[in-house]
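Sequence in, structure out.
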Amino acid sequence: MTNIAHSERDHALLSASGAHRWLPCTPSARLEATLPDTTSEPAQRGTLAHEIGELKLQKAFSGTPTRKYNATLKKFKEHELYEPVIDQHTDMYLEYVQKIVHAFPSPPYVAIERRLDLTAYVPEGFGTGDCIVIGGKQLYIIDYKNGQGVPVPAVNNPQMMLYALGALQAYRMLYDIETVHMAIVQPKVWEQPSEWSLPVADLLAWGESIKPIAQKAFNGEGEYVVGSHCGFCRAKETCRARVEQLLSVEDKAPMKPPLISWEEVGDVLRRAEGIVSWYNSLKEAALAEVLKGGDVPGWKAVEGRGSRQYADLDTAFKHLQEKGIEEAILYDRKPLTPSALEKALGKKQYRELLEEPGHVIKRSGAPALASADDPRPAFSDQVKPEDAFSEPVGS
């Protein structure tokens, strides 16, 4: 087990976690390798959550002594990025793995944080499987994700499929495996893990199909392809292919007649998707360049809007009360929203104390435009307009 303060998970050029990028956009991996690998607070918090999840699985399935477990968990909880919800979410991860393990008639094999060799399919490829369970001709690949910004489904997930191929490579001489089950535990997004299963033969066929693509990506060959996979690419702000697509509304003659058709609207929306987030991200990158002494022609760094804070809150409020200001004026008392309470209490306790007794009313969300490949079902005509567009108080 690694300490979070020194944890640095190695990544192959063609990492399994980046497969959703380098499979459709083969030259992106070599391009990313030329750019600095930065981290963020959410990413560091995710690493901390992974460490805690690993610790809990090790205690449950590898016999980590209680004293060592408690001491290590205490140290993790003292980390500046720790938040109580991590404990609740990693408990959900542990409970899910236990449910899988206990469903077998006899104890299955369990591997935790197993390094997997992927070189049979991806040049110099490797990855780390969070949890692998094998028994009764079944192979389970279970992955924990701490993020909430982007839902990650297990269905047709190339990262999970590569992990499964690596696990087959490692264990097929010891176990007769017929079916592979993949599950992603992402508590901040789904109450239940995303699951997907397929026969080993289908998985192996997919592995063979990506071999030439992986070789192409390793060589840095092919065309740059823009899509939703660009979101976590290191080159997303300055990739020429992406910039040209975002800034190009049409690539043919001017649109005629004067009003564009709905077919053209769909094309414009597709081309311009992500332009706002890209522009803001590009401005942040340009600011960082200017602040370190670089030159971005036509732009400069200026002081932004400042803020005010109390030198000493208690002293300031005591002074105000001594001057006759009533305490009621100094504080804003308001109830927590259901979403804030869910985060404070945890999904399980929130559901038991509020949702199940009927103290919280769920209303349908307002219609939102999404691409045709979005996993959510199409908006139903049966939803009443007043329900669709109304927002409950305190939502």
